[in-house]
């Protein structure tokens, strides 16, 4: 069982980071093939374009403070005020909750997706330590249109910048990102969620 698999030191569960991710479908929100069709790109530049797309995802994820793609996440959280607050965005599915205090699976909870909270019903779990396994993030089908738009726009900006460097343009403009991209990134950044 789960509680037997977790390392225990004097009754305290250890060696688990606050959140860890299993990344299986990295960068599947907008696939390279979709970008080629949308922007009518030349397939001969596939390696260069994929480099730009990878750099785009990494820059956006670094700026907002979390991974965009849907993934399975696990957290160990203590119940306070009859709830726990999940650290990830866009909770898609609760897979499993185990009360590490009682070593029992929990099936009596409600999820407030807007506030990233899980409430325990009835209120018998106060101060209990919960292992929560869930899916969070975006898929190609549910990514907000404004995030998809900034991925495409930033991809184009990266392409232009790298093309200038490849063509010997030594004049470097610091990351002058258009205000609409920075504003969208701010709305989705971890500190605003």
Molecular structure report:
With 193 residues, this protein is α+β, with helices and mostly antiparallel strands. It is built from five helices and ten strands. The protein has helices spanning 2-5, 32-39, 46-64, 145-166, 179-188, and strands at residues 8-9, 12-13, 19-22, 71-78, 83-85, 91-99, 104-105, 109-112, 117-120, 129-136. Helix 3 (46-64) packs across helix 4 (145-166).
Reconstruct the topology from this structure.
Layout (H helix, E strand, L loop, with lengths): L1 H4 L2 E2 L2 E2 L5 E4 L9 H8 L6 H19 L6 E8 L4 E3 L5 E9 L4 E2 L3 E4 L4 E4 L8 E8 L8 H22 L12 H10 L5
Antiparallel strand pairs: 1-2, 3-4, 4-10, 5-9, 6-7, 6-10, 8-9
Quick summary:
With 193 residues, the chain is α+β, with helices and mostly antiparallel strands. It has helices spanning 2-5, 32-39, 46-64, 145-166, 179-188; strands at 8-9, 12-13, 19-22, 71-78, 83-85, 91-99, 104-105, 109-112, 117-120, 129-136.
